[in-house]
Amino acid sequence: MKRLGLIAAAAATVFLVTLDQDVGAATATSNSPETYKQLNLFGDVFELVRSNYVDDVTDDTLVEGAINGMLTALDPHSNYLNSKNFNDMKVQTRGEFGGLGIEVSMENGLVKVVSPIDDTPAANAGLKPGDLITHLEGQPVQGLTLPEAVEKMRGPINSDITLTIRREGREAFDVKLTRANIKIQSVRSHIEGNNIAYVRITSFNEQTDVGLNNAMKNLKQQANNKLIGVVLDLRNNPGGCSIKRWRYRMRFSTKARSSRPAAAVPTTPSATTPGPATLPAACRWRC
After folding, report:
1. What CATH superfamily is the domain 97-183?
2. Per the confidence metrics, is the pTM higher than 0.70?
């Protein structure tokens, strides 16, 4: 019982975030003798590792590692954030941070570029979605967690860092980037012809609402309130705040399918717009 109390107390310090999952599909199951048997097994392993591992490890490290293992065994979309990582994620969703200007995830132990952010050092250097970052300053990223790798890529403004990139179809190569203060202008727009609005949303963050509202207001004025349609460009948009994405789905509806990357959409609201197929925000980091 003492061991189970330790596990429960440690688990109570955890902040767990799962995004874009069907929460209705998960139902609570009643505790059974088998449940407590499995918890006893975990407690036995916990005690053995804590007592006999070659290096000293803290209880927090063991519990966090166990939780991460449990979630990654379930699916690639659930993610664990401790208080530090959760605060880091909130910094990202505010749309301003220091770093290189790339949205990244983890794939097979390497850092994968989900999307470079427009007008940032990473975008200007030619990084592309799908690029794999294998080394930071000559040190391999394998063995690092994604938050650890992101922390290494962030740093003081005007400081340099060298990334080793693996890109399909060519040999690995190095890219030297200078860190900058990244301010994400998530909405860009202009008028095509006299009455078609072009709106590009590069990511969904706390600034997107205001940016989109201002863009649509200005575009309507430029078209003398005679807009006949909107081109909504979500290319390379890595996603972001789920609530904000849903709000934009309610606002735009794609009725005419096209093979072109950007699709023309009407200005009438609808709830049927499919969103871009992206990883949940908790699985991605900006740096």
Report:
1. PDZ domain (2.30.42.10)
2. no
